[in-house]
Design goal:
The protein is an alpha+beta fold. It is built from 3 helices and 5 strands; from the N terminus they run H-E-E-E-H-H-E-E. Strands 1-2-3-5-4 form a 5-stranded antiparallel beta sheet, covered by helices on one side. Bound molecules: guanosine-5'-monophosphate and zinc ion (ZN). Zinc ion binds next to helix 1.
């Protein structure tokens, strides 16, 4: 996709603070972090959202989740717990229509709080 922000980051045409890369996945820090660790985990191939990724059924959804866990270990947040969120569709707040998991960690993420 030519006019997609995360395709451009995946192609290294737009800079990002990269934290992890595999053959088919890439991860970089969110520019507006909501937790001490806030990393976006994306497929290099363009899929609009998690539903499209799942429908592609080529193992990439598995790879994204495995990548997210590896990053959580790398960031030192796996033991205390982390949240992996795929906003899917405008009604869920998705603003960038290239599938991405938000990996959040490094603070108390229990819900509801308290
Ligand atoms: P969504 O709302 O689609 O689930 O999440 C999009 C995320 O992308 C937001 O958390 C936003 O801060 C992040 N974001 C938007 N533009 C950029 C950018 O140019 N670089 C990085 N690293 N993150 C971005
Ligand atoms: Zn894209």
């Amino acid at each position: 996709m030519t006019d997609c922000l995360f395709c451009k980051i995946a192609a290294k045409e737009i800079p990002a603070d990269l934290v992890y890369e595999t053959e088919r996945t890439l991860a970089f820090r969110d520019i507006n972090p909501q937790a001490p660790t806030h990393v976006l985990v994306v497929s290099k191939a363009h899929h609009a959202d998690a539903a499209a990724l799942a429908e592609a059924d080529d193992g990439l959804a598995d790879e994204l989740i495995k990548a997210a866990h590896a990053i959580a270990v790398q960031e030192g947040v796996a033991a205390d717990g982390y949240r992996l969120v795929f906003n899917t569709g405008p009604g869920a707040g998705q603003t960038v229509f290239h599938v991405h998991g938000h990996l959040l960690g490094g603070r108390d993420l229990r819900w509801p709080p308290g």
